Amino acid sequence: MKRPWQGQVEPPLLTTVPRHDPHNPLCPGATRANGEVNPHYEGTFLFDNDFPALQPDAPSPGNLDLAAVGEKRGWTLLGDFCCRDKVMCFHPWSDVTLPLMSVPEIRAVIDAWASVTEELGAQYPWVQIFENKGAMMGCSNPHPHCQVWASSFLPDVAQREERSQRAYQSQHGEPLLMEYGRQELLRKDRLVLTSEHWLVLVPFWAVWPFQTLLLPRRHVRRLPELTPAERDASIMKKLLTKYDNLFETSFPYSMGWHGAPMGSEAGANWDHWQLHAHYYPPLLRSATVRKFMVGYEMLAQAQRDLTPEQAAERLRALPEVHYCLGQKDGDSSHRLTTLTTGPSA
Fold first, then answer.
1. Bigger pLDDT: 187 or 16?
2. Is 145 a catalytic residue?
3. Residue 109 and residue 295: Cα distance in Å, rounded?
4. Does residue 258 have a known ligand-binding role?
5. Residue 105 marked as a ligand binder
6. How far apart are CA 274 and CA 99, in angstroms?
7. All structural domains of the chain with their residue ranges
8. Average pLDDT over the chain, rounded to whole?
9. Which CATH number fits domain 30-55+81-325: 3.30.750.24, 3.50.50.60, 3.40.50.740, 3.30.428.10?
10. Is the pTM value of this prediction over 0.85?
11. In three state form, how does the secondary structure of 109-121 look?
């Protein structure tokens, strides 16, 4: 962080976004690529992705000789699978993001996440909810939304989390992330936010500058298991407001929920799992300077530009009122239709 920045500077993160664009396929009443017309929804809206990334008719690996060799040597080749790919709009307006939504509106999103997890989890072992926010994270549509991918297999990251959590429970008799949360509560220096039901912290293994982990304080395996009190959205709103306030910009990130596998094995013992959400924001020095994972970090080991403790301290110190709203309460009546970019590098 001490070296003067001479690398790439990103363009401004956000331009003016109209509240409603009849040509935007995510807006209420708009026509999507498949010819379907969206309802005039007033809350969340869930539909099958018109351009699914997970293709159920994708060809199977064709090299049977390689598959045979791989089986003998412990390699894993993915064969036939089935999947679903959905899109969930958070709000009917295109000019808002989660931190600018009211707590009841964010609560409706959390309820919808739990509902779609339960629905797809009846058939699929893995239901991945994720949001890519901002063009810097590859988001091509500014309308507030996320994606839900359900698959008949456990993806690589889910498999790693499954192995590590199962091994820890087997050795120590309690869930890994429950014990980790307790240790972070004792240390305090990596905590960002706490509430009666949740912790937000910068994990010691974080590699992105302001990466955070959202953890329930109670043992919860999956989103549908959250109680009404645990679905209170205030801590999520506070975290995302702090993110925006850091560089006074609509803070880009990729985030997603991880919970115990479901599908036909939902009734098995998954008590080693603890529900959690990961936030991976790329910004490093300003609204226009991001971290790049290149060179040594791709080929050897990720490096941090500031310590987890420093990142947590900076986030902790930020106000919980959005910089665009001043001292107003952040309800719908106070939203701004545009966000300004932060200072350049």
1. 187
2. yes
3. 38
4. yes
5. no
6. 25
7. 30-55+81-325
8. 87
9. 3.30.428.10
10. yes
11. HHHHHHHHHHHHH
